[in-house]
Design goal:
This protein is of the alpha+beta class. The chain has helices spanning 3-23, 30-62, 67-75, 81-99, 101-105, 107-127, and strands at 134-136, 146-150, 155-166, 172-182, 187-195. Strands 1, 2, 3, 4 and 5 form a 5-stranded antiparallel beta sheet that branches. Helix 1 (3-23) packs antiparallel against helix 2 and helix 2 packs across helix 3. The longest helix is centred in the N-terminal third of the chain and has 33 residues, at 30-62. The radius of gyration is 26 Å and the shape is elongated.
């Protein structure tokens, strides 16, 4: 939020609210007091929202995804949005790794922390490997029964075998799958689907 928005929201608008509320006490000025009070309240609550849209718009015009993305880039020492786009995943992964080193050391904890998002993007990536129809044998988070960490926790392979794919003759065959997920970008790096159980 910009300093102007803060001043309007937390200084000027409350002063206006008090002023217009006092006008409500006098019969002759009640109409002005009501409209003024409504305008002051709208200013108080509307200014931060409008300000956020403006600031996000400025950040997007500079090439960043949002104000938050620009702040993260500046905090990491990047001023160029193109350079930041190339390094964002590494920086974000490093931040996550630094945040909880005990969890990163335990593959079960680290995989569990990223399972929700990974299962969403990995399920879609696995489904795209189907030549014909597919059918899951388990709900989304339960589709991945084991995990392997790579690159000191920057990537995790989620593995499972709860998938049936239809072949060209209409028969359903069981397949196992391995989806390598990047913690920083929250995207699939590689996916492999193999006939048979694990």
């Amino acid at each position: 939020m910009t300093i102007e928005a803060v001043l309007i929201s937390f200084v000027a608008a409350p002063i206006a609210i008090v002023s217009f509320a006092l006008l409500l006490l006098f019969k002759a000025s009640r109409k002005i007091g009501k409209w003024g009070l409504l305008l002051a309240l709208a200013t108080m609550f509307g200014t931060p929202m409008v300000s956020q849209f403006v600031v996000d718009g400025q950040a997007q015009a500079e090439g960043f995804a949002s104000q938050e993305d620009r702040a993260l880039a500046h905090e990491a020492g990047f001023r160029d949005p193109r350079e930041w786009a190339g390094q964002r995943s590494s920086v974000m992964a490093a931040k996550q790794l630094e945040a909880d080193p005990a969890c990163v050391a335990d593959v079960s904890c680290w995989a569990k922390r990223h399972l929700q998002e990974a299962s969403r993007v990995c399920s879609a990536a696995v489904e795209q490997q189907a030549r014909f129809d597919f059918r899951w044998e388990a709900s989304r988070p339960d589709r991945f029964t084991s995990a392997i960490m790579h690159n000191n926790g920057r990537q995790i392979s989620f593995i499972g075998d709860a998938l049936k794919l239809q072949n060209g003759f209409g028969a359903w065959l069981t397949y196992s799958y391995n989806c390598r997920y990047d913690v920083g970008t929250q995207a699939v790096v590689a996916v492999q689907v193999t006939e048979g159980r694990m």
